[in-house]
Each structure stands twice: as structure tokens, then as C-alpha cells.
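Support request, please re-run this one:
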Amino acid sequence: MEDFAGLNLVGQSPAFLEVLELTKRFSGCDATVLVQGETGTGKELIARAIHYLGARRNFPFIPVNCGALPDTLVESELFGHARGAFTDAREARRGLIAEAQEGTLFLDEIEVLTPKAQVALLRFLQDLEYRPVGGAVVRDADVRIIAASNANLEELAKETRFRKDLLFRLNVLAVDLPPLRQRGRDVVLLAERFLSRLERQYRRPPKSIHPDAVSRLLDHPWPGNVRELENLIHREFLMTDGAVIHLHCLAPRGERREDTREATLPRITESGFQEAKASAIARFERAYIVELLSRTHGNISQAARISGKERSRLGKLAKKYGLERVAFARDAGAS
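Re-run finished. Output below.
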């Protein structure tokens, strides 16, 4: 089998090995691939593996965050534009498709594309031809398309929030990534790999994971998947002075559900129903906005599209809980 570890794809669980087998198989053709999975499961890593294991490996791999494509300029971003095509077009510019010529265009978070952008992409996928905005010549594209989503596109299509015909075009080949909680001891293999990398990066002595910490790793639900694990190991590596990492920040095996239930109920029932309800709603709203702004790096417009709320309403909620957009943009720049 290919050296998937060299592509940062590590795991031995049956579910993950099946994904690797599909990745290898799909790298041998040029058909469009749709990669789906929860946030943090490694969708871009799979897309890169398909590209670098295939015949297009010596040509560009161009990743695009669909939420960052401005609706008013989506065709210009994808197809490029001629000089003078619009007010700010002082010179001709190649689009993302031209940048990916003979290589792969990776469309991440495809679910946040606006209806206008979905139509433009569908039209391109039908015959792989496009015309730069303001241009007179139709051009052929020699490019492979890989799309990714952490949403259920079939459900979105049923709700008319995503075009069915576009879904059919994208879903020629499919890879469904399992969440980390379903990958068994892969979590331990990944944690050890992250430790080895951090030892080299910071030129520090080796650290090991305590047996009790292994149980904690296996028991944690990992809502943020591999990305959450990587951030946790990074933090614990830097904060642990000794040679053994204990991961006391994770609850021991078997205690999480019971402790949470017993500790939470008395606090909730100390207040009246309406007060407790308002407090729970406030906690949810703040947590939701924090995760949303973290995911979009502080881009309120993109966050509004993902959440389905008006931009002004979302901005008021962020302000209500003292969440500054620039702080999330700054954190993204430092990562």
C-alpha cells in the first residue's frame, strides 16, 4: 500500500483503512470526488492524497474555501476576468480554475456556496468550459474537481438549500470519513505521531503518554475530531514539564456521563424554570457563535450564510456576548 503516513494519513482501524483503499483507487482516475465528514476529520488531507497519488501530482493543487468566495465576484474568482470587465478590473486576471490547469481544484465547504455560485459551478462542470468575465473567448479546462463538505448535502438538497443537479455532478465518487470516536485505537497512534513531530519541531526530549491518559483518549467523544486531538496534544506537550503526559483535562473512562449528570442537575434546579431556561439558551448561543466565528476566522458574512441567520442579527449576537470578530481573525493568522 502507498505511504499514506507520508501524506499525514495515519490509522489502522477497519473504517479508516477502507477510506485509504478508496483514496488509492480514486487517485487512478480523473472523476469528480465528493469527500464528506465531520469538521476536523481530515477531508483536505484525503483530497491532497488523491491528487498526489495520481497522474496530476506534478501540477497544482489549488484549495478553495467556498465560504470565502464573495457572491458578487464568484465568477471572477473562479473564471478570471478581462481588463475593464467591471469597475475595479484594471488588468486581466486568471481565475482559480486557470491556476489549477492540469492539476486539481479542491472546493472545501461546498455547502456554503450561494445559489448564484452553485449555478456558475454547475454550468462549468457540465462541459468543463468557461469564459472569463468580460472575455469573448470560451476556454477549455483540464482540471480535476474534488469537493468537500461537513454537512449532509442530500438533506440540504431535500430542503432546497443545495441544488440536486449540482450534487449529482459532484457525487460521482464519494469518500465518507469516519469520526475519530469511531476509529478505536487510531486516536492513540495519532497522539503518538503528534508527539514525535512536536519533539522534532521544538527540539525537546521525548515525552510519552501515561496509561491512564490512553484510557482518557479512548473514552473522549472528540467532537472536533483529529484537529481537536492535535491541538490538545500540542498544548499538553508545551505545558507538561516532565516526560509523561497525563491529560488530566479529559475525564477518566466511565465517569464523564455520570459526573456531568450529577453535577449539572443541582445547579440547574437551584433556579426557577424561566431563569434556568434563559441561562441555558445564553450558554448555547455563546458557544454556537464562538464555534461559528472560529470556523470562519471572524468572517461575519460567511458565518451568516452557514447559520442561516441575517448578518446584522448575527453581529448583534456576537456583540451581546463580547465576541470581537477581529480576535478570531487574529487567532487564525497565528495558527
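The chain has three domains: 5-178, 181-245, 271-334. Residues 273-295 form the longest helix (23 residues).
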